[in-house]
Amino acid sequence: MGNVLIVGDLHGNAEHALNLVRVAARNDCDKVFAVGDFGAWEHMASGRRYFDVVNKAAKRAGVTVYFLDGNHDKTSLLHELYAEQRDDEGFLMCRKHLRYAPAGHRWTWDGTTFAAFGGARSTDKGRRLAWEARKAEQLRKRRRYGSSKSADTTGTLWFPEEEMTDDELSELLAADGSPVDVLLTHDKPRASQPKWNRKDKPECYPNQDRIQTVVQTLRPGLLFHGHLHVRYTGTIAAGDGHWTRVEGLACDPDASQYLEYSTDHTWYVLQLPCAADAMTESESRSLPA
Description:
Blueprint: E1 3-7, H1 14-26, E2 29-34, H2 45-61, E3 64-68, H3 75-82, E4 92-95, E5 98-101, E6 105-109, E7 112-117, H4 125-143, H5 166-175, E8 182-185, H6 205-218, E9 222-225, E10 232-239, E11 242-248, E12 267-270, E13 279-280, H7 281-284
Parallel strand pairs: 1-2, 2-3, 3-5, 7-8, 8-9, 9-11
Antiparallel strand pairs: 1-12, 4-5, 6-7, 10-11, 11-13
Organism: Nocardia tengchongensis
Pfam families: Metallophos (PF00149)
InterPro entries: Calcineurin-like_PHP, Metallo-depent_PP-like
């Protein structure tokens, strides 16, 4: 089995996605895993084309692309369209070479155990809802002049399913709270402290606390996340004397606001098998900052 290329937010940027597929091929990765805000917008024609383009490139390169929930992915539609189309590992098959990991999904690759817990809070929720309302008003005006377009724009730019509820998280952890080697999330755990944190806001803390609960329950040795659009490495306590290494990944170049940005900051080659048992405190001190 090959390695896994873990990648940050793509936001539907096809050029960046195709570049990452090429990076995967160069690094002997037969899998690419995007940690949210992938660009799951199949309610729009451009989103469907994006899925088709990525799928075609992945097929040509001999890789499979996976992704989990971001706060800007319309994942309710993925469940509606693909809930009955699962592969042998339980991923939803959006295309033959493009697959989705819903919140709480677990799997094993080459003896390494993984879990996906996507989702986050959108700090620009108000702006997105205002855009939906303006668009709906524009469509209503057009209908007065004979346009047949629907005026319902609800859920086209802001998605109510963007973050798990406390009850949903409790149900998932109650179903299986056993440890994993690698945890993949969109949001950061509350305890991680990157030097540049665009999500250090009170409205973001509840979901960060949920991810922190996942860390303390599953005690992963490694955690990868996106959402902050910046590359950093840190360590946080995972409970019972164990520690987790956190790898934050940057986003596509069009969405980055970070002055020290590089496209190399958007990906990480995870070699399998990955002996990623939760670290002890003494082991965590030997890691680079």
